[in-house]
Amino acid sequence: MPNDSAMLVLKAMSGLELTIVERTRLSAEDLTLLANRGYLELTKAERQRLIPNQLAILAVSGTIVLDRQERDRIPVAQIIELVVRGHAQMSKEELKRLTPEQLTMIYSVMG
User: Fold this and answer.
1) Which of 64, 75, 81, 91 could form a disulfide with 58 if both were Cys (CB 3.0 to 4.6 A apart)?
2) 105 is in which domain, residue-wise?
3) Exposure of 85 by Cβ count < 10 A (0-12 exposed, 13-18 middle, 19+ buried)?
4) Residues 32, 68 share a domain
5) pTM value?
6) Do residues 39 and 68 share a domain?
7) Distance separating alpha carbons of residues 42 and 102, to the nearest angstrom
């Protein structure tokens, strides 16, 4: 018999709306899966539960646009890769914090 989390994932994938309580019982992995496949739109609180790699996955898939707080949680090298590949943007303030080597990496790829 499927566990509670699996039942909630199946419920969401069948098009039924999850209650707030049910959504809080989903793991970060389940939230990422459901959001990436278009079954859920994540709330700010749900996005805060995700680890940096999960945020990056959702940014690459175009599911979310990373906000400043989310970008701050992701390692700089990974953010640079996301920026270079067009999956994230950095503010002028964020660019000022980069080392000359990191800036060179961005500008060499972006031209």
Assistant:
1) 64
2) 51-111
3) exposed
4) no
5) 0.87
6) no
7) 31
